[in-house]
Amino acid sequence: MIAQIPFWQRKRLHEMTAAEWESLCDGCGLCCLNKLEDADTGEVYHTDLACRFMNADTCRCTVYPERTRHVPGCTTLTPDTVGDYHWLPYTCAYRTLAEGRPLPDWHPLRSGDPDSVHRAGVSVRGRTVSEDAVPEAQWEEHIIHWVLS
């Protein structure tokens, strides 16, 4: 019997079910970092400041189903909007698949282990500060350069 080809290899993003789409998230937490945009150039800078609703240990949103109600500017990725978010890290599965690249070995869908993203050093676990701990006027001091873009 031939092994079934995984959905992420046989379907385009817009063909995936809601559950398949959501399972692409590797739990790295990079999209939950606050970003600053240069008004003149449009360049986006990541900070080490995590959204107040991100669990620092799991790197997952604690209010995910209601996140846009709690944080109106929270990113909502769809197959049609993935390309609009040029700041998504190179390692993001949504970006990876949209660009036609394969999921890396450490991705939980490949490894079968939700902690593989953390062991691979791709997640923000242990590298963030809550946005609540830093006045917004000081956010520029928290710009980081370790996000792979």
In brief:
This protein is of the alpha+beta class and 149 residues long.
Layout of strands and helices, then pairs:
Layout (H helix, E strand, L loop, with lengths): L6 H4 L7 H6 L9 E5 L6 E7 L3 E2 L4 E2 L5 H4 L22 H6 L9 H4 L4 H4 L9 E2 L19
Parallel strand pairs: 2-5
Antiparallel strand pairs: 1-2, 3-4
Sketch the topology as an H/E string, one letter per element: HHEEEEHHHHE
Which class of secondary structure composition applies to the elements? alpha+beta
Distance between the termini: 40 Å
- What is the overall silhouette? globular
Question: What keywords describe this structure?
Answer:
single chain; two-stranded antiparallel sheet; UPF0260 protein BTO32_08230; 19% helix; 6 helices; Puta_zinc/iron-chelating_dom; UCP006173; globular; 149 residues; 3-stranded mixed β-sheet; alpha+beta
Question: Can you describe this structure?
Answer:
InterPro entries: Puta_zinc/iron-chelating_dom, UCP006173. This is UPF0260 protein BTO32_08230. By secondary structure, the chain is α+β, with helices and mostly antiparallel strands. Helices cover 19% and strands 12% of the residues. The protein contains six helices and five strands; from the N terminus they run ααββββααααβ. The strands form two sheets. It has a three-stranded mixed beta sheet with strand order 1-2-5, with no helix packed on it. The protein has a two-stranded antiparallel sheet with strand order 3-4. It is globular. The protein starts with 6 loop residues before the first helix and ends in a 19-residue tail after the last strand.
